[in-house]
């Protein structure tokens, strides 16, 4: 692990800053791989995945099967066969950004992996684990990412599936 001499921003509402981060995210999405999964090869974890599901997903077919198993039959199917698996961070948040006068550092790569681009947008849109004070930042960042590269129709369908998938495995604790 490396120490980075940087600071957090007081305000996350500067549009030029948000567009810069969107450019970084869209650049990350240009890196692809044929097999889904975390960069470290571990079990899927993060805001989109059930905490008690320890199933490794090693192929696109296995990934698609697991996603569809988490959807209600009336909802539809998650299709990934023709969608590229792109490098995603899946935890872009104010707490994971550091700055100095010349650089932006994106921290906490625990959930990073190769997934459909819709996974990145789902983590922004679903507000899973997000700080309420920065909800505008997530909305504006999603808008800036999609302004530069809009979702394809299949990615839009996947986004709806992510929402259903996440809602189907969220638990209420007493």
Automatic annotation (TrEMBL):
Aminoglycoside phosphotransferase domain segment(s): 1-125
Transmembrane segments: none
InterPro entries for the chain: Aminoglycoside_PTrfase, Kinase-like_dom_sf
Pfam families: APH
Record's protein name: Aminoglycoside phosphotransferase domain-containing protein
Species of the source: Extremus antarcticus
